[in-house]
Specification:
There is one protein chain. The radius of gyration is 18 Å and the shape is globular. The chain has a single domain, classed as 3-Layer(aba) Sandwich (Rossmann fold), CATH 3.40.50. Helices cover 39% and strands 9% of the residues. A hairpin with a 4-residue loop joins strand 1 and strand 2. The chain is an alpha/beta fold. The chain has a 5-stranded mixed sheet with strand order 3-1-2-4-7. A two-stranded antiparallel ribbon has the order 5-6. The protein has 11 helices and 7 strands.
């Protein structure tokens, strides 16, 4: 998640949409007063900054995984605490309506049937977690699905100025940087990629039951972006 005062944008980070790569690309171009949340691979890079209060509790909470398990991240004790996959409503609450309304707010989104398969493979191969079958995971572990509508919707209202399509990531990202006057001219870093050895056809993972389950759980994303299970058939 990034709040850039230099370039006047707010980036809400969704799952499996190259958000980590985008943070690594944009981080060095952000200003000294901008808010950039940490992730495992960049915590000591100098890129994350201003995501916690500069007091004892804020610094302890940032360093201690145990503290983050004990104290709720929305606790008023922490003051302003910004984190990686942070919902837009909470960002708005912390930065104030004036800043929120004057900055360009965006995120990327991905066909949910494709996203769910990518997330499952990342858990299974990227994190080496013991995973049940794909069907069991989808049908019984709904709370583990990458349900990102809650990050950028408030009820049925989308809070973003733009929700950009992940399948067209490079041209969409370059156009966004041009519009925001962000001087990005380099190659996009690759974070959390190469999880599987080859490109998979997500449609092969589904049966009618799991396909319908994803359609129900991701209804807001599907309605907003017009996603279908099989774009080629459409």
């Amino acid at each position: 998640m990034i709040v850039s005062h230099r370039h006047k944008f707010i980036f809400i980070k969704t799952h499996k949409t190259a958000g980590s790569s985008m943070e690594m690309a944009l981080g060095p171009l952000c200003g000294p007063d901008d808010i950039i949340t940490p992730m495992e691979s960049n915590v000591d890079s100098g890129i994350p900054r201003h995501y916690h209060e500069e007091n004892f509790l804020g610094r302890t909470y940032a360093r201690s995984r145990w503290a983050r398990k004990v104290i709720d991240r929305h606790s008023p004790l922490l003051g302003k605490w910004f984190y990686e996959h942070m919902p837009a409503w909470r960002v708005r609450e912390l930065i104030g309506e004036e800043t929120w309304n004057s900055y360009h707010k965006f995120c990327f989104e991905r066909n949910p049937w494709d996203k769910v398969v990518s997330y499952y493979n990342w858990k299974k191969f990227g994190q080496s977690k013991p995973m049940p079958s794909f069907k069991t995971w989808v049908m019984q572990k709904t709370h583990r699905l990458p349900l990102d509508a809650s990050l950028y919707f408030e009820g049925d209202k989308c809070l973003m100025d733009e929700v950009l399509e992940y399948d067209q990531f490079i041209p969409r990202f370059n156009a966004l940087c041009e519009k925001l006057q962000v001087p990005f001219h380099g190659e996009m870093p690759r974070e959390k990629t190469n999880i599987t050895q080859q490109k998979v056809d997500y449609r092969e993972f589904y049966d009618d039951e799991t396909r319908e389950k994803v359609a129900q759980e991701f209804a807001r994303e599907i309605r907003l972006m017009g996603y279908v299970f099989d774009p080629q058939a459409q």
